[in-house]
Design brief:
Chain lengths: 113, 110
């Protein structure tokens, strides 16, 4: 398996634009996580899904952020409109039921100018 | 999940054992101790986990005190590639939520 795949790896966008980050979890994994990492706040859990259903979205900063998981092999994190303070590295991770190890993607580095 | 406390940073000489401590004094009976590390610019990587017995795998050893209020991650022969931020996480059985603290920045010195 190629592991958790995130795209794009880098994204530069202007303030006010919509940004969509994508994640393909490892096949067969039933839980998916979105994290945001900044120097100031470290690794923050934004939202996680179990069997494609959002379980805990308490970490989503505000209504500008939304996440979906339309099927077991794909998830998106959307920011609309984007702001400079959204600049961060966004990680996606997946975990298999009964497995204790979470696998992380390489991250998407987002820069909002 | 119980809170963990780790030193902000540590240094270790290359080839020596790196011992990373973690306090989790409020841990409850069904909570496991997990360790992850994050090498610069990469996603976090699982290292090891345990409940109450000491554990060893190809990457590291985990020593958990008898009262389970603290643990130590041991990298037996540290190399420069072990330079990373190491996170100690307490997580209850069946809870998939994984919450990271600030971790320990370990620097391996040549």
């Amino acid at each position: 398996d190629a592991g958790v795949i995130q795209s794009p790896r880098h994204e530069v966008t202007e303030m006010g634009q919509e940004v969509t980050l994508r994640c393909k979890p490892i096949s067969g994994h039933n839980s998916l996580f979105w994290y945001r990492q900044t120097m100031m706040r470290g690794l923050e859990l934004l939202i996680y899904f179990n069997n494609n259903v959002p379980i805990d979205d308490s970490g989503m900063p505000e209504d500008r952020f939304s996440a979906k998981m339309p099927n077991a092999s794909f998830s998106t994190l959307k920011i609309q409109p984007s702001e400079p303070r959204d600049s961060a590295v966004y990680f996606c991770a997946s975990i298999d039921r009964g497995n204790t190890e979470a696998f992380f993607g390489q991250g998407t580095r987002l820069t909002v100018v | 999940d119980a809170k963990t406390t780790q030193p902000t940073s540590m240094d270790c000489a290359e080839g020596r054992a790196a011992n990373l401590p973690c306090n989790h004094s409020t841990i409850s009976g069904n909570e496991y101790v997990y360790w992850y590390r994050q090498i610069h610019s990469q996603g976090p990587q699982y290292i090891i986990h345990g409940l109450k017995n000491n554990e060893t795998n190809e990457m590291a050893s985990l020593i958990i005190t008898e009262d389970r209020k603290s643990s130590t991650l041991i990298l037996p022969h540290a190399t420069l590639r072990d330079t990373a931020v190491y996170y100690c996480i307490v997580r209850s059985f069946g809870n998939e939520k994984l919450t990271f603290g600030t971790g320990t920045r370990l620097t391996i010195i040549p």
